[in-house]
Design goal:
- With 215 residues, this protein is an alpha/beta fold.
- The chain folds into two domains: 5-16 and 86-214, 3-Layer(aba) Sandwich (Rossmann fold); 18-82, DNA polymerase, domain 1.
- It is 44% helix and 16% strand.
- The strands form two sheets. A six-stranded parallel beta sheet has the order 5-4-1-6-7-8, sandwiched between helices. A two-stranded antiparallel sheet has the order 2-3.
- Helix 7 (169-177) links the parallel strand 6 and strand 7.
- Helix 4 (90-99) packs parallel to helix 9, helix 6 crosses helix 7 and helix 7 (169-177) packs parallel to helix 8 (192-198).
- The longest helix has 15 residues, at 62-76.
- The radius of gyration is 17 Å and the shape is globular.
């Protein structure tokens, strides 16, 4: 395949945010009087929109889930977003893609303001032509909608030469809904089975393999 435009998910695709996200969830649950489960049970919060996860896994109402997200951010904004690590080889991958003339886009359900801070923290910000994330008011969290907005902002690109890369089913489904080739990565938080079931066009198991495929 020969791609001109590459859209990347953030959590579980470029970075491993497990420590910061789970710490923030634990903080929110405790402040809401809910006993947090084992940390490994909270890894499923990585990727999907937060409010949906609070509703789904803790049977919170829509209003309660929004409150939980607000409390979550009390920890995440000043501290949790930096409790994060890059997957090995990511800076080198982005540098190679840029050197080869690829247009690089971040398409994440994470609020744009936090996503940009993370990119800058890891000195990745300058590799990206565009960052599209959700809004702090809870809008634009659906991955398909995020990708739609990203494509609109990019303007005149060839969709048959664009690809969405992510580690969870919603990344793949969002890409498919927008008519894009999709690459699922298994080094994040979605299994190969999840990615296949979602309809991923291609699956890779390492950043090295991903780099070779995209270039």
């Amino acid at each position: 395949m020969n791609f001109d435009t590459i859209l990347f998910d953030l959590d579980g695709t470029l970075t491993d945010p497990a420590e910061g996200i789970t710490n923030s969830v634990i903080y929110a649950l405790k402040k809401m009087g809910i006993a947090p489960p084992e940390r490994k049970e909270l890894l499923k919060f990585i990727g999907p929109p937060l409010a949906q996860s609070f509703e789904k896994y803790f049977n919170l109402s829509y209003e309660q889930s929004l409150k939980a997200v607000d409390i979550y951010r009390e920890y995440f904004a000043p501290k949790g977003l930096f409790e994060n690590t890059l997957f090995d080889g990511v800076p080198e991958m982005l540098k190679s893609l840029k050197k080869n003339g690829k247009k690089i886009v971040l398409a994440t359900s994470k609020p744009t303001v936090f996503a940009n801070k993370i990119l800058k923290h890891f000195n990745l910000y300058d590799f990206f032509d565009l960052t599209v994330g959700s809004n702090l008011d809870g809008s634009l969290t659906n991955k398909a909608e995020v990708i739609t907005v990203a494509l609109e902002r990019l303007g005149n690109i060839k969709k048959d030469r664009a690809v969405m890369v992510g580690d969870r089913s919603h990344d793949v489904i969002g890409g498919i809904k927008n008519g894009l080739f999709t690459v699922g990565v298994t080094f994040g938080y979605g299994s190969e089975e999840e990615l296949k079931a979602a309809g991923a066009s291609h699956i890779v198991n390492s950043v090295k393999e991903l780099t070779e495929f995209l270039i």
